[in-house]
Amino acid sequence: MTQEHYTSLYRQSADLYDAMMGTALETSIFNAVVKEIEELTSIDKEVSLVDICCGTGILASLIARRRRVRFTGVDVNATYIRAARKKLEGSSGFSFILGDALNYAPEGPVDIVTLTSAYHHIIDRDKRKLLMNVHRMLKESGAVVIYEKCIREYANRNEFKTNNEDFYSKRIEFLQRTEKNHLSRKQHEALLNIRRLSASGEEEYKVSYQHLMRDLGETGYEVVKLSKVWPSENLFDDPNVGDFIFVVKRKV
């Protein structure tokens, strides 16, 4: 397969990533993640939270407006970490660390770990290693909130490419129809970039819903709550394709 020549979204300005994540769809899903966090914790108690692959601090910004939390964001992208620190500058209790999610260890056990569009950035052979490391971060009563985009199951490289292209083509068409002010040029450019990365398996290693469920089961988790957050309409003939929020805890 001929390699296309383009610069990955993740090697460009943080503004391009923020534009893509600024759609009404992504904003609504991140707000749903915050709601899950709030339902897991007492409003009058400080919560310790580690956000894996925190990006530019999108989740942190939403949480900072709504509740008290001791928040640590971890990401390998120095550009995104700088952007996150700038966004949360002056907000007490928020810190951002340049680090690898596979071996990051907090100072002590935490209440919540979030994986918001994080799991698919980990190469398949390391996905369970990530989940096991997250397992070690948690308090016994702790929980993991996972927001993940799941493609159709695939048996080979060609199916992987086709399923990723189908997922993003339909997502882009959906956003073009539903965004109040339509997709901006930056947003459309970023989504096309992600479609190319996903189809080529470069910095994007998406898997199926079934794959994620197997990984969770094999690494000592049980799903205590599951919500499909996109699409609500029948865009795909497989109900396990789309965006999901999983709340998981250690198996008893």
Structural topology:
Elements: H1 14-21, H2 24-40, E1 47-52, H3 58-64, E2 69-75, H4 78-87, E3 94-98, E4 110-116, H5 124-137, E5 138-150, H6 157-178, H7 185-200, H8 209-218, E6 221-230, E7 242-250
Parallel strand pairs: 1-2, 1-4, 2-3, 4-5
Antiparallel strand pairs: 5-7, 6-7
Helix pairs in contact: 1-7, 2-3, 6-7
Taken in chain order, the helices and strands follow as: HHEHEHEEHEHHHEE
Structural class category = alpha/beta
The count of helical stretches stands at: 8
Radius of gyration: 17 Å
The CATH topology corresponds to Rossmann fold
What's the CATH C level?
Answer: Alpha Beta
Low-confidence stretches: none
Strand content: 15-25%
Architecture overview:
The protein has about 250 residues and is α/β, with parallel strands linked by helices. The protein has a single domain (about 15-150, about 205-250), classed as Rossmann fold (3-Layer(aba) Sandwich), CATH 3.40.50.150. Helix content is about 40%, strand content about 25%. It contains eight helices and seven strands. Strands 3-2-1-4-5-7-6 form a seven-stranded mixed sheet, sandwiched between helices. Strand 2 (about 70-75), helix 4 (about 80-85) and strand 3 (about 95-100) form a beta-alpha-beta unit. Helix 1 crosses helix 7 (about 185-200).
